[in-house]
Write a structure and sequence with these properties.
Elements (H helix, E strand, L loop, with lengths): L1 H28 L3 H22 L5 H20 L3 H7 L3 H10 L7 H11 L3 H9 L6 H13 L3 H14 L4 H13 L3 H16 L6 H16 L6 H13 L5 H6 L3
Length: 259
């Protein structure tokens, strides 16, 4: 029981630290240096105690060194390739939209994040406009184009980018769960089943299953159930409950991915 409690404490401390690191990155990008430093100090404190619980065998100076390395590494990520993502996920839609426009020139891959913003808030038509104009040599952009085409019901068109990106990255589960949706939307039952089962297999073989993996599992089990494979209905219900239980996925999120 004590070990389990410590794990829960470590997770909460790490989550708190990560939240403040992301806030630091946002404030730093806006030039609010004082606020940025305050957020960074909170992040460092939480990370220190997380490391202390997680690595009780280390001396204090070793914990300090590890904490500094951890914070610097995470801060570098959120200041660079993760800045757009944290702006979108840590703020209300209006605030995120205004922040993206305000610091757009400093955000790596700004056009992608502008499209991601629309997609995240289910403005699929505007998101699709963005991704239609982005380079198709990039698997991420190609995937999003196919994903959004399925969301607006253009399943036949969606097959082209999704089949291509699945060949380019055969170990990415998200390509196959969305490919399953495209085939199912066209009534191509056999190929849809193969795609959904491939997505499930890739996810279940991962060492860690997080928020996005839970969503794709529910999507895949739901798709199989809708295809008439009744043996997956129990798995869909169980996976949906597990996803909600984690606290990272809402029931509303899971309902809106179904069709």
């Amino acid at each position: 029981m004590k070990k389990r409690k410590n794990i829960e404490i470590i997770v909460k401390l790490n989550n708190a630290s990560s939240h403040h690191v992301q806030e630091f990155a946002i404030q730093e990008s806006l030039g609010n240096n004082q606020k940025a430093l305050i957020k960074l100090s909170y992040a460092t404190s939480y990370k220190f105690y997380a490391n202390m619980f997680d690595k009780p065998q280390l001396e204090d100076d070793q914990i300090v060194e590890k904490t500094i390395r951890d914070i610097v590494s995470e801060a570098n990520f959120w200041q660079n390739e993760g800045l757009g993502k944290t702006i979108i996920h840590l703020n209300s839609p209006n605030t995120a939209y205004n922040l993206l426009n305000k610091v757009g020139n400093t955000i790596k891959d700004y056009p992608f994040w502008s499209g991601y913003f629309f997609a995240e808030h289910w403005d699929n038509k505007n998101a699709l406009k963005v991704f239609n104009n982005l380079s198709k040599n990039n698997p991420v952009n190609l995937h999003w184009q196919g994903n959004l085409l399925t969301k607006v019901g253009r399943f036949n068109e969606a097959l082209i980018p999704l089949v291509e990106v699945a060949k380019m990255e055969p170990n990415r589960y998200n390509h196959f769960s969305h490919l399953g949706n495209a085939y199912r939307g066209l009534g191509i039952k056999y190929e849809a089943k193969i795609a959904y089962k491939k997505a499930i297999s890739l996810i279940l073989n991962k060492e860690n299953i997080g928020r996005v993996e839970h969503i794709h599992l529910v999507r895949s089990y739901h798709g199989l159930s809708r295809l008439g494979f009744n043996e997956y209905r129990l798995a869909e219900d169980k996976q949906q409950k597990e996803a909600i239980r984690t606290g990272t996925v809402s029931k509303h999120e899971l309902e809106r991915i179904k069709f």
